[in-house]
């Protein structure tokens, strides 16, 4: 940079502003740095559970079991509980067991010797407890079928941390008017709390399911 | 574009909520057999690189040929010819069978070189033996198709440098062996807190590391490297001169701003 450019950068640089030098241009640029608020409370347990599930994608097949065992020991899970925990990628795996039907949809709880371990892979779409099945599709207080279907697909995902657009895409809802109606219904009935996530210059909508939605879906 | 992010802290875990595809690997669960060459890379070439990398990391240049001899012996005794389905010896085996297994006259040069190697490799195995105590390690090809965050919190600086250099070497050698030189970017490697790995102080006081050689070749290997650091005056000259785009923000003092303005 020459003297003038340096002076220019000195004057304008401040928190939230970055100076960029692209070799294709002779002068520097000043840009606003977008604030990205990522959740910081992702626990070790969650990270390791995810890694354990994805071990087949990364490690050599002969070492997957060894890595999973190391993860299990690190997490302090007794060996007896392993069979009850979900493993997504093992080819030919049987669907996971749901040990405790009182758990939330999209999660399984295995209790061994007084400890409980929560997985996030169990609970097939359509599995409902007797409590929610009674109110399904009837009465004004229950969700419409299409909203229920979207929520069921969403909360039965292994990792349901998706944006609004991604949730609709997963549920196969493409029409804009339909999306608007479903979202309005869910917000009106207090099933979700909506948050805005800044991403670059734009924003993404993120849904937080409420307890009411969990109990509605059983 | 697949991302490989190497971080010191745990602040990239939040990305798990943004991308389903992202896998966070704490360093204890990272696996890499240092003696197994990447796919399609010959063992002769790989043993040379590894000897250079390991001795360069600890400035044990005189011990290089001795280490090379040990690695060759181990490959031969193990019957490893570089085939991907063969069992390959690992660093622990090299340490126990070759480095500790040889004895020379107490006051000879060879014994001194061997002792240096022994103490350094023992240090590596003590710090992060579980990483290198494996036969295959992480599948590089699959890893380069996935978004990966490798967390290296709590590791010593040398270990971070070793793991970073090893991973970059694997990526580069693999690209070199398989690539058609399309000049299209295929992988992005992000290194946070780069001042620990690209230390200017080391570059000035010691010989250029193997990492510097790799960085100079990065552009040919269809791999982008992004390095983040608190102060640009801590980063090596080799990194600065091989970096096209530079972004500076939150300058703590004018000295750092001046340094940034000088290098761009």
Question: Can you give me a brief rundown of this structure?
Answer:
The complex is a heterodimer of chains A (218) and B (264). Chain A is an alpha+beta fold.
Count up the domains of chain B: 2
The largest inter-chain interface, given as chain pair and residues per side, is: A-B, 41 and 43 residues
- Reading the helices and strands of chain A in chain order gives HEEHHHEEHHHHEEH
What is the averaged pLDDT score of chain B?
Answer: 84
What is the CATH homology-level superfamily of the largest domain in chain A?
Answer: Winged helix-like DNA-binding domain superfamily/Winged helix DNA-binding domain
- Averaged pLDDT of chain A: 71
The SS-based structural class of chain B is alpha/beta
Given helix and strand content, the structural type of chain A is alpha+beta
Main beta-sheet strand count, sense and barrel state of chain A: 2 strands, antiparallel
Sequence of strands across the biggest β-sheet of chain B: 2-3-1-4-5
The major sheet of chain B is characterized as: 5 strands, parallel
CATH class of the largest domain in chain B: Alpha Beta
What is the alpha-carbon Rg of chain A in Å? 23 Å
- Give the N-terminus to C-terminus distance of chain B in angstroms: 27 Å
Q: What's the architecture of the largest domain in chain B, going by CATH?
A: 3-Layer(aba) Sandwich
> Share of helix among residues of chain B?
40-55%
Kindly give the count of domains of chain A. Answer: 3
- Helix and strand sequence of chain B: EEHHHHHEHEHHEHEH
């Amino acid at each position: 940079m020459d003297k003038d450019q340096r002076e220019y950068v000195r004057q304008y640089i401040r928190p939230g502003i970055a100076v960029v030098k692209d070799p294709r241009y002779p002068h520097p640029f000043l840009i606003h740095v977008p604030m990205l608020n990522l959740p910081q409370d992702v626990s070790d347990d969650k990270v390791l559970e995810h890694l354990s599930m994805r071990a087949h994608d990364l490690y050599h097949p002969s070492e997957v079991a060894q890595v999973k065992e190391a993860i299990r020991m690190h997490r302090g899970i007794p060996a007896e509980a392993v069979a009850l925990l979900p493993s997504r990628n093992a080819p030919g795996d049987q669907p996971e067991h749901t040990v405790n039907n009182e758990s939330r949809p999209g999660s399984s709880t295995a209790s061994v010797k007084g400890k409980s371990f929560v997985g996030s892979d169990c609970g097939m779409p359509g599995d409902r407890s007797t409590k929610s099945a009674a109110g399904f599709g009837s009465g004004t207080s229950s969700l419409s079928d299409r909203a229920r279907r979207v929520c069921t697909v969403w909360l039965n995902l292994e990792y349901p941390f998706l944006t609004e657009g991604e949730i609709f895409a997963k549920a196969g809802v493409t029409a804009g008017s339909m999306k608007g109606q479903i979202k309005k219904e869910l917000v009106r009935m207090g099933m979700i709390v909506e948050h805005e996530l800044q991403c670059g210059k734009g924003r993404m909508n993120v849904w937080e399911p409420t307890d009411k939605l969990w109990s509605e879906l059983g | 574009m697949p991302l490989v992010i190497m971080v010191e802290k745990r602040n990239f875990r939040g990305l798990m909520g943004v991308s389903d595809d992202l896998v966070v690997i704490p360093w204890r669960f990272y696996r890499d057999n240092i003696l197994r060459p990447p796919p399609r890379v010959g063992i002769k070439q790989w043993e040379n690189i590894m000897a250079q990398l390991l001795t360069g990391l600890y400035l044990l240049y005189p011990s290089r040929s001795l280490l090379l001899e040990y690695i060759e012996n181990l490959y031969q005794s193990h019957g490893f010819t570089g085939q991907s389905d063969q069992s390959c010896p690992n660093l622990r085996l090299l340490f126990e069978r070759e480095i500790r297994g040889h004895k020379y006259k107490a006051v000879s040069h060879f014994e001194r070189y061997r002792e240096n190697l022994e103490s350094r490799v023992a240090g590596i195995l003590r710090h992060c033996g579980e990483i290198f105590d494996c036969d295959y390690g992480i599948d590089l090809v699959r890893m380069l198709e996935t978004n990966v965050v490798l967390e290296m919190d709590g590791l010593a600086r040398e270990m971070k440098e070793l793991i970073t250099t090893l991973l970059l070497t694997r990526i580069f050698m693999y690209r070199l062996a398989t690539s058609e030189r399309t000049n299209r970017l295929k992988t992005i490697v992000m290194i946070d807190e780069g001042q620990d790995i690209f230390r200017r102080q080391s570059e000035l006081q010691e010989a250029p590391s193997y990492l510097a050689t790799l960085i100079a070749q990065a552009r040919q290997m269809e791999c982008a490297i992004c390095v983040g650091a608190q102060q640009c005056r801590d980063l090596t000259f080799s990194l600065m001169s091989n970096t096209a785009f530079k972004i500076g923000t939150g300058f703590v003092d004018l000295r750092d701003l001046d340094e940034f303005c000088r290098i761009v």
